[in-house]
Design the sequence.
């Protein structure tokens, strides 16, 4: 999750730096030619607004997706473990991110490892 956020921030920083470099080149070219038309400032402003809007949309989209993944990973599910020999059923509460194939960590911190004859069922 942190890696995705850092990548998004890096891309946003690159977009901002490129927009500023383009603006500096345009200003230098205009200073050399000493001809400033009324259409250049408005097109420059429009391109800045578009650039910053795209960067903001990318950052917000990444933040939203990361938040949804975080919520899904931390959702609590009930797991029922059935002992095949005795038929005994035990129900545990487990965060979805801590649920493995033959082992899981409960909400209260216990680590449960299943034997060869145990069966695990997720209750939703």
Sequence:
């Amino acid at each position: 999750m942190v890696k995705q956020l850092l990548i998004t921030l890096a891309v946003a920083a690159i977009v901002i730096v490129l927009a500023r470099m383009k603006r500096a080149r345009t200003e230098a070219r205009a200073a050399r030619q000493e001809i400033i038309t009324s259409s250049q400032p408005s097109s420059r402003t429009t391109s800045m607004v578009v650039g910053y809007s795209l960067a903001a949309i990318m950052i917000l989209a990444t933040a939203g997706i990361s938040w949804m993944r975080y919520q899904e990973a931390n959702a609590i599910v009930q797991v029922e473990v059935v002992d095949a020999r005795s038929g005994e059923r035990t129900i545990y509460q487990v965060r979805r991110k801590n649920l493995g194939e033959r082992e899981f960590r409960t909400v209260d911190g216990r680590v449960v490892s299943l034997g060869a004859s145990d069966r695990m069922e997720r209750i939703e």
